[in-house]
Amino acid sequence: MYTASKAALATLVLALVAGTTVRAQGVNGSITATASVQSPITVAGAQNLAFGNVFPGVAKTVAYSDATNAGRFDVTGQASTPVTYSFTLPANLTTGGNNLPIGSWTGYVNGANSTSGGAAITPSSTPAGASLSAGGTLYFFVGATVTPPVNLPAGSYTGTVTLTVSY
Amino acid sequence: MRGLRYAFLLTATAVLPLAGQRPLTVTGIQSLTFGALIPGIPTAVSRTDAARSGRFDVGGPHDTQGQVTFTLPSVLTGPAGATLPLTFSGSDAGYSQSQNIGSQIGFDPKQPFLITFSGQGRGSVFLGGTAQPAPTQRAGSYTGTITLNLTAFP
To answer: What is the CATH number of the domain that holds B124?
Structure first.
């Protein structure tokens, strides 16, 4: 009887252990986490907008299509991705305290480094949209007109044109 | 021998409640999707975002409790082994007994959490998180694996 009780106890312990093992069982499942990182945007001022010599009282225009004198920005980023752009434009070129008014801005945007096959734009501070090319490039060409007053002092006048591009 | 028979009876009593009940299950239903990221700009996905949050469906004996734990990656892996840091806040996980994304109980995915299966023996676990691409993050697709572990709670 004593032996039988020990056997019974051992069986019970085994059973409880077995039961505990069943309760502790675990299962799992998985999912993936995904993200797609875009190429960072770069903007490079590739060519200055250059008016050369101007004369008091004589306006001078540089067209965006002027390969030598038009301003140009080169942009790179995620291929075939829309971007928003805007310009910060000066109202004057300056030297010392003297102003040379600049305005009548013209522009052109293209996925290729060319002033054909793209779209004409009017550079301004108002955000506008464009799309990077399949190669992840975008080119902006800028022209404008300076209007020297008749009494404009001689000198070298400069200003800064800034292009901001974001996704 | 009577003692032995009694022991067998106890054995049967201890095991039988598990027999015939709904087994524990975990099924990955939806990936946690961060979408397009811009280098340098963290992007968070809410656990209540029906389209982008991660989702697991769980099953077990009805009206009983289970314990869930996550195995979470600290980074997603991308092109040429590049890594994208991933973080989870203290309320980025949620449990819904009704499997309704709009009625979750939030919890910390980094800590074990007790859930109660519904009367039908079901429930859903939702997960959000934040991806933190560096300003110089390499462009490309990044992936990682998130695992939900479920154990029965006595």
So the answer is: 2.60.40
Q: How far apart are the first and last CA of chain A?
A: 85
**A-proximal residues of B, 41-80, CB under 8 Å:** 43, 54-56, 71, 73, 76, 78
If one counts the domains in chain B, the total is 1
User: Given phi > 0 = left and psi -120 to 50 = alpha, else beta, which region is B13?
Assistant: alpha
Question: For residue B41, is it within any domain?
Answer: yes
ipTM: 0.85
Burial class of residue B67, CB neighbours in 10 A (0-12, 13-18, 19+): middle
Q: Evaluate whether residue B130 is within a structural domain.
A: yes
Question: Is B70:B125 a contact under the CB 8 Å cutoff?
Answer: no
Nearest to B139 among A7, A33, A38 (CB): A38
B51 sits in the region (left: phi over 0; alpha: psi -120 to 50; else beta) called alpha
Confidence of residue B20 (pLDDT cuts 50, 70, 90): low
Query: Would you say the C-alpha torsion A14, A17, A23, A28 has a positive or negative sign?
Result: negative
Written as six digits, the tokens of B33 are: 């999707």
- Residue B2's pLDDT band, with cuts at 50, 70 and 90, is very low
Collect all residues with Cβ–Cβ distance below 8 Å to A134 and sequence separation of at least 6: A79, A80, A111
A19·B43 Cβ contact <8 A: no
This prediction's pTM? 0.67
DSSP class of residue A25 equals: -
- Residue A98 CB contacts under 8 Å (≥ 6 apart), including other chains: A152, A153, A155, A157
Does B44 fall in a domain? yes
Pairing of strands B54-59, B25-30: antiparallel
Q: What letter represents residue A15's amino acid?
A: A
Interface touch A36/B35, C-beta < 8 Å: yes
Q: Which domain holds residue B91?
A: 21-152
Neighbours of B25 (CB within 10 A): 15
